[in-house]
Amino acid sequence: MRTIGLVALHVFRDSVRDKVLYSIVAFAVVLMAVSYLIGQLTAGEDLKIIKDLGLAAMSLMGLFIAVFIGIGLIAREIDRRSIYAVLAKPVRRHELLLGKYLGLVGTLLVNLSVMAIAYYVVLAYIGTTLSPAALKAAPAPPTDPRLLLAVLMIALELSLVTAVALFWSTFSSSALLSAGFTVALYVAGQFGADLKNFEQVVESPAAGMVGRVLYYVLPNFAAFDIKAEVVHALPLPAGYLAMTTLYAAVYIAALLIASVMIFARRDFK
Amino acid sequence: MHAIRTEGLTKHYSVGFWRSRPYVALDNLTLEVARGEVFGFLGPNGAGKTTTLKLLMQLIFPTTGHAWILDRPAGDVAMRRRIGYLPENPTFYDNVSAEELLGYFASLFGYRGAERSRRVATLLDEVGLGPERRMQLRKYSKGMIQRVGLAQALVNDPEVVFLDEPMSGLDPIGRRDVRDIILRLRDRGATVFFSSHILGDAESMCSRVGIVAGGTLVASGALAEMVPFRIRGWDLVLAGVTADAAAALSARAAAATLIGDGRYHVVLPASASSEDAVALAKSANAELVSVNPIRDTLEDFFLARVQKSAGRSFD
Fold first, then answer.
1. Is residue A269 part of a domain?
2. In order of start, what are the domains of chain B with their CATH numbers?
3. pLDDT (tens digit per residue) in B102-129
4. How many domains does chain A have?
5. pLDDT: is B192 or A223 the higher one?
6. Which of A6, A154, B96, B126 could covalently link to B100 via disulfide, CB atoms 3.0 to 4.6 Å apart?
7. pLDDT reported for residue B314
8. Is there a contact between B80 and A88 if contact means CB atoms under 8 Å apart?
9. Interval A238-256: pLDDT, tens
10. Are B90 and A267 a contacting pair at CB < 8 A?
């Protein structure tokens, strides 16, 4: 466990200094600030739009971090051969892999926290500019604590994306290819509900079956999107958050186990 | 007790996308290196040197055969506490400093707190890294990275050190420093296994060498046994040779060639001695600039074995 912790700490130290990371976070903060201007153009709906855009910016920028820095965890290390020196130390391959995963999830959580703070600052400022009538008409207050639930779901989603990135990296020798696979799976995972209902819109039972199998196999990233419910103050089904958290935990565990098994026998040519 | 032992170590790769065919990177390598030896693993590029080192480090797994380090299987994690490894053309993490990188590696070996800081500082001094040790590695030159690589291979004060082309990318000062480090390791009883295609390195440091070509070990043994180092003649440079003296030189030497400005390159036969060289210079009333024996070298031996193995001429 100590080795895993040491690797995670090192990954965190290396990745929080990555210039790409700063650009992404800065871009997200700018995007949230700009959402204020966009909100001004839409009479009456501004608060909801700002909330929605802010969460979308956090999710998108987090995805960039998870994919582009996440791929660097293993794929770039193999590409650049920096992994050779580490694996010659008293470090088991699974310890390296899990340490790297935890280090990047840590980096993601820190960045997500920075973005969430910026998000609340923007919302609090907007709250001061709204008239009492507008505040009363809004479905939820500007700094609604419930928004944190959406941030939590984004954190879970990004932890899953990181596990997917790690999984591809364990057997692909190209960082670019791993990034491509991860983004492809993320996009496919956004259509979870469509895949589930695929058999209702196609005539071929075989095609319907393929859709259903894909629904169960592919990570259902759409499940983590509760932006609409939170922004519009709509109720969530009972136990939804707990079930989604469990789903993420099980999927991440499965991906990490598969990654460890593949990585254990991989040749670093 | 052996420092390193391999038995029939073989590695095949599949090459080709559509129709894959086997490529033999290493074939049936059986080798023993005793404790305290400096062993040079020599061969041309693509001979199988790095493959062997990767198999020993378990970065790749053998198709057949076995390897042991310090009498433990090559994959034993506890054994790795006692060894160090410098990969060929190493690269590390861009955003950390040499100090942080070594601190990280030292902590993987259980160093903590002040002891870790002391160990890191000592190592960085040993490989000659000054205040730049606090700079991010992205700003380092190739030679500086090689020095960091060497330091990380020694972080745990290892009993066996594996160095893959340790002189690569280094300037003459860096090469001398690495040579000194290897000799210091030898003096304190460590085993050093290093790969190189630069034979001078092996000649100046190794007690034994192995020569690998085309994935096969073509020769191994003590240098003195492999290369007899017998004197085949003498190589002289004389200065201030007059025209009359030059004619006399040509008559007495096996060859005498004018370099220019009264300087001559003279070759004496194997039957001559170093005293004959001094006498020749005296008789020609010339200054003896240098006198060197012409010997069989590791290079002669190496080229002959590699040529034989490849079945082709290198001329």
1. no
2. 2-224 (3.40.50.300), 231-294 (3.30.70)
3. 999 999 999 999 999 999 999 999 998 8
4. 1
5. B192
6. B96
7. 40
8. yes
9. 889 999 999 999 999 999 9
10. no
Measured between beta carbons, the chain B residues lying within 8 angstroms of A268 are: 54, 59-60
Considering the entire predicted model, what is its pTM? 0.83
Q: What's chain B's average pLDDT?
A: 88
Size of interface A-B (CB pairs under 8 A): 79
- The helix/strand/coil state of A149 is helix
Domain carrying residue A223:
2-264
Question: Closest Cα of chain B to A256: distance in Å?
Answer: 20
B59 interface with A at CB cutoff 8 Å: yes
The answer to ipTM > 0.85 is no
Which of A3, A81, A269 is opposite residue B13, by nearest beta carbon?
A: A269
Using a CB–CB cutoff of 8 Å, tell me whether B77 touches chain A: yes
Chain B residues with beta carbon closer than 8 angstroms to that of A18: 95
The C-alpha atoms of residue B146 and residue B86 are separated, in whole angstroms, by 9
